[in-house]
Amino acid sequence: MVNDNEKVFLTEQEAKAAVEIDFRQYGPQPRLYRELSPLILGGSAIVLDQGRHTGVWIKQGRKNTLQPINAHALGDHLCQALQTRAYPLPVLAEICTLTFQVRACPGPDPGDTTRGIWIESDMDDFHCSQCGDCCRGLAYHNDCTEQDYRRWQRLGLTHILERVQVLGANGETKGYRIWVEPGSNRLSPVCPWLREPPGENRCTCLIQDVKPGICTQYPFTRKHAIMTGCRGKFKKQT
Ligand code: SF4
Asked: How far apart are CA 171 and CA 134, in angstroms?
C-alpha cells in the first residue's frame, strides 16, 4: 500500500481485501450488497427491487435454481467471489467507489510497475476533536505493520518496541500485536500513549510523530468515520 497524501494506491489483491474488511467490520449492509451483486457476482445473481421481494437471488443447489439469500449470507458469498474471481480494473474501481463511498480509479503505481486502484479519501476537510474515542475503543491491536516496526527499530525507540509482541514461530515473523505490557504478552487495557491533560478537555498522543500507520490513517474515509462513531467534524456537507 502506498500513501500519497489523501490518495492511496492499492494493488488488485489489496483492493479486494479492503472490500472484504469493510463487509466484515461493519456487518451486513443490504443496500450496498444489492448494488454490488451484479458487479461481483455477474449473471449468477439477480437483484429484485419490488416491495417485500426486494433482495438478491442467487443460483444455488444442484439444479442451479435462483433462490433468495439473506444479507448476512450474501456478505459471505460476495467475499468468496472476490477471493476466487478476477475483475477488470474499472469494475474493481467501481466496486471500491460503492463500498468506500469515495472516488476510485484504475492506474499505475507511483513506480509504474503494476496497475491497481487509486482511492481518494476526500478527508481534507476533516477536523479531529481529539476526544480519544478511537484510541480507547477501536480494535487496532493486530494492525501494526512491518513498516511501523522497522521504523521504530531504525529510530531506536525501545520504549515503543518493548510494547510490541512479534508473532510467529521458528524465526519466522507472522505479524505484530500492539500494545502489550512490557515483559509480557498481555494487552494494555488502554493505549499507553494516550494522555488527557487536566482541564484541557482533549486527548493527546505521546508518540504522535511516530505513531502506527493505522492511527495516522484513521479515519480513512467519511464512511469509516461514521461507521466507527468518530466525533470529528467535516466542513463540507456530504
Ligand atoms: S474518534 Fe475521531 S474525533 Fe475522536 S480522537 Fe479519534 S479521530 Fe479524533
From this structure: 33
What residues have CB less than 8 Å from 209, skipping those under 6 apart? none
Task: Report whether 167 contacts 178 (CB < 8 A).
Answer: no
8 lines ligand 1 (CB under 6 A): no
Closest ligand 1 atom number to CA of residue 132 = 5
Is 138 a pocket residue for ligand 1 (Cβ < 6 Å)?
no
Tens digits of residue pLDDT in 198-211: 999 999 999 999 99
Distance CA 230, CA 136 (A): 12
- Using CA atoms, how far apart are residues 34 and 54, in angstroms rounded to an integer? 9
Cα of 125 vs centre of ligand 1, distance in Å, is: 14
Peptide bond into 219 cis (omega under 30): yes
Tell which residue, 34, 224, 196, has the closest CA to residue 232: 224
pTM for this model (two decimals): 0.81
Q: What is the pLDDT of residues 60-114, one digit of tens each?
A: 777 778 888 999 999 999 999 999 999 999 999 999 999 999 999 999 998 889 9
Assigned C-alpha cell, 158 = 525501545
Residue 228 CB less than 6 A away from ligand 1: no
Distances (CA, A) of 20 to 78, 167, 209, 227: 8, 23, 30, 15
Which residue is closest in CA terms to ligand 1's atom 7? 128
Q: How far apart are CA 11 and CA 2, in angstroms?
A: 9
